[in-house]
Design goal:
By secondary structure, the chain is of the alpha/beta class. About 40% of the residues lie in helices and about 15% in strands.
Length: about 400
Amino acid sequence: MRVLTLSTLYPDRTRPGFGGFVERQTRALAARADVEVRVVAPFAVPPTRLAKRHPAYRALAGLPAREIWNGLEVHRPAFATLPMIGGRINPWSLARTVAPLLDSIRAEFPFDVIDAEFFYPDGPAAVRLGARHGVPVSIKARGSDIHLWGANPACSRKIVAAGRAADGMLAVSAALRADMIALGLPGERIRVHHTGVDQAAFRPRDRRAAKAALGVRGPLVVSAGNLIPLKGHALLVAAMAALPGVKLLIAGRGPEQAALAAQVEQAGLGDRVWLLGALPHEQLPGLFAAADAMAAPSSSEGLANVWVEALACGTPIVITDVGGAREVVDRAAAGRLVDRTPAAIAEGIRAVLADPHPQAEVAAAAARFTWERNSEALFEHLSGLVLRHSRESGNPWLRDAV
């Protein structure tokens, strides 16, 4: 089976951790002897004059149009977006940009299916491209693509149209699947597809030695994720005032970094709360294994990879009751579900620290999340779409999807 993976979430040299979970899933699928994969990882850029003023866009503009990234052939086309209104036009712009590239790829790699790995803007563009080439399309929902863009009426219409035009859909959790159905997507075509974890890398270690490697002694809480309001790091920092003697390490970068640093300083927590910046993914196992708890008070999620990665290291998690949280925290050893307030977060952390479970017992909560299982399910899903696809996927919803 020849798979064309389309994803606006995919790592590159300017953002090595961006969409790392998509890359790891794609690599696991490509490792199968019965699958070939090509990756198209588009990225949005504003008009040239605006792009030149922004360092992030200048860096993206320097990416190669085609490269071998961790063993996979990856194409990186830039598609145009506009500030403020880009969300509404991005599916159209993405499809328009990628169409001639897919024509060229198909000449030497006749792909059987398009696997869109983020629902918006990738999904609406994918159904248009699938119809162009007469191949089935799968669209995967991960959380913010449904919760954020689905709250925008103009984008929501495109999401629903794309989902109804697609041959099949995936959701990272049962809770996200329910949200998709509530939005108007056909539930009979949505399959829950849990993430995977590299169980060889993310595993329990000697916690004292792992702490020593980080220069830490005593109770330790860690968090990892983009520094954006959705992730709730400001609430987590505020919770630390009620946890004397506990240290907090936050890995990630983003627009809230300066505000968080100021918050730490103003609260007098500089000796206990450290902002680590972005860490390579290969450093996360050591970070999680050192912690007595991993905290992530997000306002919304699908099913976060950091949840199961921390558990696989034998580290309980303290998270808000969002998305697939109840599918992960399904036993006392896995941690606590808390309200999204500093007081509740602090109480959840305090409870986990006061009642530690053996690391092996905690890690057992993540045993079912493997890339092997993820890859097998994805192969079964995509090959099923290919087998059932006997005609072009044109239908009335296709016209409204882009």
